[in-house]
Amino acid sequence: MELTLPQARQLQLAAQGLLQPASKPATRAGLRASVACMGLLQIDTIHVVARSPYLVLFSRLGAYPQHWLDEALAQGALFETWAHEACFAPAEDLLAHRLYNREARKHWGLVNAQKSHVKQRAELDKLLALIRDNGPVKSSDFERPEGIPSAWWGWKDEKRWLEALFASGELMVARREKFQRVYDLAERVAPQLNVLAGNQDPIVDPLTPSVRLASAERSVRAPTLAEVRAQFTEKSVAALGLTQARWVHDYYRSKPRLKDTDLDVLVEQGRMLRVAVEGWSVPAYVHSNQSALLKKALAGKLEATHTALLSPFDPIVWDRERALTLFGFDYRLECYTPEAKRIHGYFVLPILCRGELIGRLDAKAHRAEGVFEVKALHAQAGCAWTDAQTIDVAAAIQRCANWHATPQVKISHTRPGKLGAALRRALRDNLTESSSQ
Mind giving me the DSSP string for 25-48? Predict the structure, then answer.
């Protein structure tokens, strides 16, 4: 089985929910299904436009109320964990992530937390006792003494201790308030942990919605580390739709980087399919769960019709090598680069247009003024946009601006320069057409 490169792209976009625009209005169930499909939803706090997890979902679902994601966390359908980075993940994966973080993950957040557990265990125990007696807390509930510096990005001691207890699994994020984490005891946030421990009378907040209570009623068995590694491998391949072996580990940031021989057993078991991609010297892999999509891709029946602005932390682009190999798109996040050294801007959104990544734009939502500013837009090098692509991208920008409640779009700079005039004209035509309907 050999796929062309466009067919390989279409297969990945289909698995990620980005091949075609949503066919019906967004729902809460659809939001949770989208996170389950991706397996992970990376968290980032930058909010020059919508924060990344909300934007990733908008790219797939279309317009939806952002508080739906907050509700899914508060109701226990999702939880927060260290994984690819800080991420939301589906509740059914809770035990797998807790075990892997405890036994195998070497992320800096976990390493720093372990140091706090060694050096400041007494302070951690006092904080746990306070939460046990008085209920959930935010880091803003504690004041930092004037003139006392702290480590970890200048965090005060209590913030570091809360994060250390979160990393160890003693605390979990019960909900977010204005995107601030609210921490509570793990057994109160996830009653299924009590079931696992054999506690017949789990501690449950009576105000907790039923979705969390229902999870405690199911029988629970702790997975082994080997089972978790296998689970993350399969989930990565399924979420990616199509992948090379060397890209699999990055999805969950598991170790080690895989080779083709590491997947031989799964191929022999029929859990994965080994395929060829035109021009690649190594095989690709498709999970058996995606075999129907594979057949459609091979038959040329996957049609890419979706145009959207992607988050810098979208799974499509978070592996630089994969994005370059599959889409010819060399993407590097520049928000942590000194301003003088940036090429494309601070928070640059890749532009997906009908199966291709054709450019990127640096945007800022001026919410008080109702303005969505495109500070800079760069077409992909060597890619001359067609009139249809320009119209599609203009419509995608306007949809994104409307969702941000900043409907006035301002385009400041484009490369090539003439693209700016074409986009402004398309935006005006779109507004004229919308007002006449």
Answer: ---HHHHHHHHHHHS-EE-----S
